[in-house]
Amino acid sequence: MPRRKLGQHFLIRGSILERIAAAACPARQDLVVEIGPGRGALTEKLLKRAARVVAVEVDPRLVERLQIKFAAEPRLEIVCADVLETDLAQWGRATIAGNLPYYIASPILEKALLLNPPRAVFLIQKEVAERLVARPGERAYGYLTVRTALFADARLLFEVKPAAFHPPPKVDSAVVLLEPRTRDPGLPDRDAFLRFVAQCFRQKRKTLRNNLAGLYGKELVDAWPEASLRAEQVSLEGFAEMFRRLATLS
Ligand code: SAM
C-alpha cells in the first residue's frame, strides 16, 4: 500500500504525547503493545513508563528507522506486521496504546476489545471517539457504541487538533480510554447478541417493530414495551433484556 494511504500523521506536540503515555501508564506497566509506532515519538514516552514495549508497525521503511533510533534499547521489540493480521495476545496480558491509523481504527478497536486488555488508550478520529462514548438518544449513539459497551467502559479523555500532527489530518482527533466493563451484562453468546443489535439498528430511523417484525413476527415484537422505540434510544441493558426474552422462546 502507498505510504500516504497508511494514515501516517505523526504527532509532533510533546505535551500531547506525554498525556497519551500517562493515560496508558498511570503507574509503571509491565508491558505495553503499541499499534502504529511510526517514527517512535509515542514509543519513546511509553518506554519511560513501561518495563517493556512491543511496537507493531506495517511500513518496513519506518521499521528500519525505528531499529536505528532504538538500537540501544533492549526493552523494545519492533514487529514489522499488519496489526490486523497479528495475534496481539501472543505477548500475554498487556496495555494497548497507539495513535491509530484512522482508515482501520474501527477494526483495530474491535480486535483490541476482544482481547479484553486491562487498559487501552487510543488516539482516533473525534467523530469515532464520540460514537464510542455516546449515550442512548445522542446523535452519535449506534451499533459501535453498543458493541464497545459490551466489552468495555469507554471514556473520551481529551481532544487533539490537527495542528498537533505532521502532516495535519483533515479531521479533529480525540484520545479514548477503554477499561474492562465493571458490570457483566451476562450475555454468554456475544456474537448472537451483536447480530441481534445490528438487526435493531438496520434502519436507524425506523422503530424496533419495523426492524424486527420480519425476523421474529409482528405479533411477538408488538407485545414488547420497546416496540415503538428506535434502536438509538435503547441502552445496552435494554438490548440485553430483549435478547434474553428471545432466548427464552427458543
Ligand atoms: N505513533 C506515531 C505518532 O504518533 O506519531 C504514528 C501514528 S500514525 C497516525 C499511524 C501509524 O500506523 C503509521 O506509522 C502507519 O504506518 C502505521 N500503520 C498503518 N497501517 C497499519 C497496519 N495495518 N498495521 C500496523 N501499523 C499500521
How does this structure look, described?
The protein is an alpha/beta fold. It folds into 2 domains: 3-180, Rossmann fold (3-Layer(aba) Sandwich), CATH 3.40.50; 190-249, Helicase, Ruva Protein, domain 3 (Orthogonal Bundle), CATH 1.10.8. The chain is 39% helix and 21% strand. It contains 10 helices and 9 strands. The protein has helices at residues 14-24, 41-49, 60-69, 105-115, 126-133, 143-151, 190-200, 208-216, 218-222, 236-249; strands at residues 10-11, 29-35, 50-57, 76-80, 95-99, 120-125, 152-160, 165-166, 173-180. A 7-stranded mixed beta sheet has the order 4-3-2-5-6-9-7, with helices on both faces. The longest helix is centred in the C-terminal third of the chain and has 14 residues, at 236-249. Bound molecules: S-adenosylmethionine. S-adenosylmethionine binds next to strand 1, helix 2 and strand 3.
Key traits:
10 helices, two-stranded antiparallel ribbon, seven-stranded mixed beta sheet, elongated, 9 strands, alpha/beta, 250 residues, Helicase, Ruva Protein, domain 3
